[in-house]
Amino acid sequence: MDFDIRQAHSPGLLRRLAAIFYDLILLFGLLMVAVAAMIIPYDLILGVPFPYEESFHRLGLRLYLIALSGLFFTYFWVRSGQTLGMRAWRLQLVRTDGTFPRPRDAVVRLAWAALCLAPAGAGLLWMLFDRDRLTCYDRLSGTRLVITSRAESSGPARSPKAQNR
Asked: Does residue 4 lie within any of the structural domains?
């Protein structure tokens, strides 16, 4: 079955926020494990606590966590078009042609989302005034969220175009 983007329905603000909330809970758990995986060996191998006070180490830790956060989203978006929070709320990320995003598309969407959400979520609130209910970063990245049916969201993770083969 081809994913016809013209027939797609864009999710509302509350559904998007719910999926974001789910994903942030999962991401927070992942980042806690990632910090522990970095700090505990540091303490055990070197025998000294992690030097939080030193700006170089703080910067390194922040960059590590930002990179992991980006990998979390890009991995899921490229693999199946859905993060776990998006799957729970039956949302799918697709390109404007109805296919899953490529790695470049996912990185561009993530970068635009970070920039557009920074000023008090203005990029997300943009959808309230957009005729197609797209966010600012949807438009800028050439991707969009669509609502899937129950069967599509619980089935195997495959590209909408690949389901026809």
From this structure: no
